[in-house]
Amino acid sequence: MLRSLYLVLPFLGTALLAQTPICTIQGNGAASPLDGQVVTTIGTVTAVYQGAGTVQGYFIEDPTCDANVNTSNGIFVYQTSAPGIAVGQRIQVTGTVDEFQGLTEIRNVSDVQQLGIATLEPTTLLLPIDDLNNWERHEGMLLRFPQELVVNSTGNWLQYGEVVLGPERAFTATQLVDPNDAVATGTNTTGSGNVAAVLALEALNDRGRIILDDGRTFSYPEPPPLLGAEGTLRTGSTITDLTAVLHYAFDEYRLHPVGAVQIVHVPRPEVPVVGGSVRVASLNVLNYFTTLGEWGAATTAERQRQRTKLVAALQAVDADAVVLCELENNDVAWADLLGAVNAAMGNGTYQALEEGAFGSGGTKSVIFYKPAVLSETGPLYVLNTFTFQRPHLTQAFTVNASSGRFLLSSMHLRSKLCDNATGGNVDQGDAQGCFNDLRRTQAEELVAFWAGIRGSTGIAAQVVVGDMNAYAQEDPLDVFREAGLATMLDEEDHSYRFRGTFGALDHVLATSAMASVMSGAAVWHINSDEPAELGYQEDNLAYYQPNAFRCSDHDMLVLGLEADGLSVGVSAPTVITGLRALVNAGTRQVLWTGGTEPLLGLDLMDVQGRQLLQHSSTSSTELRMDLSGLPSGVYFWRCALAHGGVARGTMVLP
Predicted confidence band at 571 (pLDDT cuts at 50, 70, 90)? Predict the structure, then answer.
């Protein structure tokens, strides 16, 4: 409710002219009905921004203007030089009404008369507002937000002095709401039965969003507003009892603060405590490229700063194995980072597992592990069919101290970028973005691939970590859950920020055997809550810090395993001889025959262990496949048999 107390102290000789009330100037629509007309109006000054680098003007308001809630009682007066104007003055202004890029204002001021002083109480407003159109009815007014507001975005903080506020941390809709299932635990991966609920949450986020500006117009204002003691402004920080005037510029409503802003800074977190005797981590390194000027660093100095930050993060978390995504697809970048980590932590601390450079361009994933803690058990399994953009790695490890074994798998699905999207990969309007169809297919192939590895190795404890480019309630995660893989992070464990909303693109998946020995899983929020402008780029040198914070745009995942709970001495299923592959050189058809048990399924792999084809279960003791679409070469095959054994072999396709 708005209250005013007027102490009318007119100045001698003041001429009161015919008045046009502020609310009449504003009108009840988006634009003033008096645009271009010269008017005289009266109001109380609520905020003043004068001098170079400000919005150069002041706000006036008349709370007795009218009783129409659809018309604003406040207006901005653009006057680059207004000596003597101060908050609390009641003034008469004559000037021209102008719709300036969506803002109703008075400019070309020809006369200002001071009439007295007044005390004006701000209008109380709460977020979220009922309707986005309601911002217009408050344009130019002094507002008070008594609630605790949360900083949800700092994307324009250092450059323009802006932050985005909301009533709480805003989550990406599909982090919390499943587009297919009204109950989030459902695992349907098709249909749009719950898209309305997804869109409703997006709309709620929009209604809760408002920009807090700083009244300045210079780029890179000094000092940056709301800077904390740690040299940053983290999202999740809170502002209480904000008083500000509502302005409109650059196509968005924004608040300019009046008086001090009461902010409570969220401190930077320590490495999460996850327990266990073995620690595993994962991090998307945001394009660590040794080729300069590509997707990562543009200069040698930038690469050095990027490497310094990444090493600081890896050294701090001190994981026994870590999956790294988005290294350059060559044999140099991963070796460069490995060398830097070992130089910081001791020669030979980590060894690397990777698939040699494939194709040209793009990124790859690599596994670093400590040979003093873990030993490779068997080959590195690689899945890189035409469905994928990069190889997916799985390695069996034995814990040296306990002889327990587990499988560690990397993950990096297709991104949501819409480049070259066609057909079902075009954005379907369900908030899952482009290429959701492909990500779902990739998840299905991986589920089958991993099941084959668990079956052939006899190791049931498997953990999958990495960047899935899908939020917690999207289709790929439903595919994994349907296959029996549990998601080990909480619903609100965000790892990524996009346009002021938060969610987890990075996940920890575990089989039941692995989940039973997992002592903890957490997200170390070193990146998503930090301003992007604290990164390693040249433009950010003034605020660069040689630490782990803002080493990437994704947060690091950390999990602990109780090694004593892992199975010891697990052996692979009995390998059955007798089944063989007969290749018809003319038709390039292959017949698997000679066994005595029904074949449950067959996997065909290239010499690097990448799965190429998979045949579903059959009740026959023989299996025929047409391989005419494959190039000539050597191939590995593996059959699961009805009574628990496996048959393996090699064949040459002419």
Answer: low
Tokens standing for 55?
């919005």
71-124: pLDDT as tens digits: 999 999 999 999 999 999 999 999 999 999 999 999 999 999 999 999 999 999
According to the model, what pLDDT value does residue 80 have?
93
Q: Where are the domains of the chain?
A: 4-121, 132-170+208-264, 278-564, 580-653
Domains 4-121 and 132-170+208-264 share a fold: yes
Model confidence pLDDT, tens digit, residues 262-279: 999 999 999 999 999 999
**Which residue has 């502020």 as its token pair?**
22
pLDDT of residue 4 exceeding 60: no
Q: Regarding beta strands 278-288 and 556-561, do their DSSP bridges make them parallel or antiparallel, or are they unpaired? A: antiparallel
Name the CATH architecture for the domain at 4-121: Beta Barrel (2.40)
- Tell me the residue type at 418: C
Read off the pLDDT band of 298 (50, 70, 90): very high
Alpha-carbon distance of 613 to 629, in angstroms, equals 11
Condensed to tens digits (0 to 9), the pLDDT of residues 572-605 reads 455 566 788 888 888 889 988 888 888 888 888 7
User: 470 with 413: CB under 8 angstroms?
Assistant: yes
Task: Compute the distance between CA of residue 543 and CA of residue 228 in angstroms, rounded to an integer.
Answer: 12
- Rounded Cα gap, residues 204 and 131, in angstroms: 9
The answer to whether 198 and 174 have CB atoms below 8 angstroms apart is yes
| Long-range CB contacts for residues 611-617, cutoff 8 Å, separation at least 24 | 611/383, 611/385, 611/445, 611/448, 611/449, 611/452, 612/385, 614/445, 614/448, 614/452
- From 476, 488, 548, 478, select the one nearest 518 (Cα to Cα): 488
Question: 542 in the Ramachandran plot: left (φ > 0), alpha (ψ -120 to 50) or beta?
Answer: alpha
Considering only residues 10 and 401, tell me which one the structure prediction assigns the higher pLDDT: 401
580-653 CATH: 2.60.40.3080
Torsion of CA 49, 53, 55, 57, to 10 degrees: 50
Assign 14 a pLDDT band (cuts: 50, 70, 90). Answer: low
Architecture of domain 132-170+208-264: Beta Barrel (2.40)
Average pLDDT for 379-388: 90
3-class DSSP state of 566:
coil
pTM of the model: 0.85
CATH architecture assigned to 278-564: 4-Layer Sandwich (3.60)
User: Phi, psi (5° rounding) for residue 590?
Assistant: -120, 135
What angle (nearest 5°) sits at the alpha carbon of residue 511, between those of residues 503 and 495? 15
**Helix axes 475-482 and 436-457, enclosed angle (nearest 10):** 20
